[in-house]
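Known limitations

Structure tokens in this collection are predictions and should be treated as such. Users comparing against experimental data should check residue numbering before alignment. To illustrate the layout, the record for Trk system potassium uptake protein TrkA is reproduced below. The input appears on top and the generated tokens appear beneath it.
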Amino acid sequence: MKIIIAGAGAVGTHLAKLLSGEKQDIILMDENEEKLSKLDSNFDLMTVNASPTSISGLKNAGVAGADLFIGVMPEESRNMTACMLATNLGAKKTVARIDNYEYLLPKHKEFFSHLGVHSLIYPEMLAAKEIVDAIKMSWIRQWWEFCGGALVLIGTKMRETAEILNVPLHELGGRNIPFHIVAIKRGNETIIPRGDDTIKLHDIVYFTTTKKYIPYIRKIAGKENYADVRNVMIMGGSRIAVRTTQYVPEYMQVKIIENDINRCNRLTEVVDDKVMIINGDGRDMDLLLEEGLRNTEAFVALTDNSETNILACLAAKRMGVTKTVAEVENIDYISMAESLDIGTVINKKMIAASHIYQMMLDADVSNVKCLTFANADVAEFTVKAGSRITKDAIKDMGLPKGVTIGGLIRNGEGILVTGNTIIQPEDHVVVFCLGMMIKKAEKFFN
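Generated tokens:
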């Protein structure tokens, strides 16, 4: 597959690194030669030093034979222009990164497609949705719904109160167990568990289950005493913060603390009246305490500085806040953030890359989620008639090491699978893949 990525910024370089390991034909375009020179020698990709909005530059990059053209430059208008030009010069499919929510409305889809922009991605909106999913339940690190919630994935950290510590998985209730443990994150290692594996203190355990069994998982994880989130404090009035306030449930009270007075004035115009805007430095503990930090169940740090966000969440934890979320855009800091136990980490680059990655899979995939801490992906495949996965029971399928099936949705109902389960056409199957294994798993669903 020939893929051209326009823009060697944070999202473009992360995506190029991700895809270069896939043995795809990757071309990264940017007019800044310095950005490109850092990448060229270290990864299996080609770089083109030209403007992605230049017709001659696009021709030199070989856009006529491109299967996928991805515009991820900082400026929305340049991404749209580059995609339109790429389509007219022969690219089969285009994706543009945008920052205008209005463009995503279903009524505009055909209009943009006609112009040559086939898909749109808005990383700030995707990040805001992840934040809201993370704060809805204070005891959960990651939460992901499949098929409108028929099946859910829950990631939660094991504390001393967990009932399932040090018990081999095959002893956890046998065939009638109402959940499936798809992965265990232990230190820097992610384990696809087998029956004789055990869960240890401080593991992050990923469960798939149906919604009615969430209270049961909360109980066995020892998290029943965690307060439900009613009050949310957001540090930093970024675009993600604005989107987050639009997605939080009605029952939550939100405060945004922003240092820049001009930004505060702008926030009062764009957020709901019930959101309180406070002008001040979110690193000032006296200010946070004055504004009710001790009565806050969720603290979300969304400044443009990863270190500030990590430290602010650490401070909030020390003050007794149950749930903290930090935006950490520096990928090198993510494992450090996890070792400091700051709660949920949000990274726009990884979220955007997951969604773009989904578009280049041949199988029918409606969802791909990158699990930030676990170096793993969860994908939701729709099973086609005649595909390999329907030919035998799961245990006889020979799935690659590092791939496990977490559950399936049949006729709108979530079903947990065993080794004897036979998958049928039209099932939606939730597949957990370590590292870059989605491409290998995909072959079973084509």
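For this record: Residues 123-136 form the longest helix (14 residues). Residues 126-130+227-350 form a domain with the Rossmann fold fold (CATH 3.40.50.720). Please report discrepancies through the issue tracker.
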